[in-house]
Amino acid sequence: MALSLARPHRVDVGIATVSLVSGLALWALGLHTQPGRAIGGTWALIPLAVLACLELVRRTAPRVALTVGTLALVADQFTEGNLASIMMFTDIVYAAVLYGKPAAARRIPVTTGLITVAVTVGFLAWFRNPEAILVGVVTGIVSFGPATTGVLVRNHREAAEAARLRAEQTALLAEMDRVQAVTAERARMARELHDMVANHLSAIAIHSTAALSLDDPRTSADALAVIRENSVEGLAEMRRLIGILRDDSGDLEPAAAPTLDGLAALVATARTNGLDVTLDDARAPRGPKLPAPVELAAYRIVQESLTNALKHASPGRVTVALAQEPRALRVRVSSPYGGPSGPRAPGSGAGLVGMRERTELLGGAFEAGPENSPDGKVWIVLATLPVDPADEGAKE
User: Fold this and answer.
1) Mean pLDDT throughout 69-88?
2) Of 111, 223, 263, 291, which has the fewest beta carbons less than 10 angstroms from its beta carbon?
3) What is the distance between the alpha carbons of residues 112 and 236, in angstroms, rounded to a whole number?
């Protein structure tokens, strides 16, 4: 065993200094714990000085301090003794449990307890006098008492540290949840903003391009009428969305989420914008009510598909088909693909990403891509949205 070279803690320096000065004062006054011993004089100062030095390493080298301190206390029993030496030894036992390794913290209380019992039984058998029990009591106070006190304090500190770590972990998890919630809300608002405004802006871009490309007053007037209608509707939706985002008083009531009942109006608007659209709704007229998240996702998928058809489809018929399966709603939108087309609006690809996200949030399946048909090449958007109550995702 080697003593630690670390600088003693200032508290340990204070304990050692006060204990040494107190022990010297007791010795000078002639106050001893065991007067009349054969070894008297200044011999009691040697264990006192050794224990005072060990107090300096009670925190940095508790095992060494306890081993050497035990030997010093035994040596002190052959002198006239000093109360300060006994008090320093009890502190060293306490520090060995508090600052020592976990194994030592578990072993020292058991060892001191066994020593206390052995001393009590031994002296009782030797002196055959009940007063010998007092020797065991003193031994327990000097050794077992500080050891158990150290165990209690150490357990309290470990419990406090564990509670602090749990609090930090809880705070970290709460921050992660907050970041995830903010990210999910931003993604949701991005989808809503794209779905609500992209259709109107696409119509404006296409009809303005047509008005600039064709030198026909009637065509230009029709295009301007469509542009005005879409710009007014898009501006109103933008103002409503911004008002909801900026208002935190709760005075604004949220607008009702669109449902499949509004598909007819959506198709009519697409026809006004120049698409040849057919709606084929094969659902039962009095079928079960679909969950709100499913209806919203289906409406937005049809809306975005019509927007993409307006921007990218070739001339021809666009078909919107809805089919109610036992546990799913099937949405299929087909539009002409390839060949000559009219003016187009630029796209970013966010529409397909948004449709796929909406479908996956509900646990459904989404496909989009070209397909050959008897009428030529078409672009297919196919979404299968679960409607079984156990599968409702209500994550919008």
Assistant:
1) 91
2) 111
3) 83
Distance from C-alpha of 108 to C-alpha of 90, rounded to nearest angstrom: 13
**For the stretch 310-331, what's the b/e string if a residue is b when 16 or more beta carbons lie within 10 angstroms of its beta carbon?**
bbbbbebebbbbbebeeebbbb
**d(Cα 340, Cα 56) in Å, to the nearest integer?**
92
Write out pLDDT tens, residues 18-39: 999 999 999 999 888 888 777 8
Q: Which residue blocks in the chain are alpha helix, DSSP H? A: 10-29, 45-55, 62-76, 83-99, 102-127, 133-139, 145-213, 217-246, 263-272, 292-312, 350-361
- Helical (H) or strand (E) element with 278: strand 276-281
385 exposure class (CB count in 10 Å sphere: 0-12, 13-18, 19+): buried
Backbone angles phi, psi at 321, to 5 degrees: -125, 135
Nearest to 256 by CA among 268, 244, 267, 273: 244
Write down the pTM of the prediction. Answer: 0.53
User: Which residues share a beta bridge with 320?
Assistant: 279, 333
Alpha-carbon span 181 to 187, nearest angstrom = 10
CA-atom Rg of the chain in angstroms: 44
Tokens 């508290």, residue located? 11
List, in sequence order, every residue forming a beta bridge with 323; answer none if it has no partner. Answer: 330
pLDDT at 195: 67
Q: CB–CB of 223/207 below 8 Å?
A: yes
Q: Mean pLDDT: which of 15-24, 334-343, 371-380 is highest? A: 15-24
Residue 349's pLDDT is 62
Rounded Cα gap, residues 43 and 50, in angstroms: 12
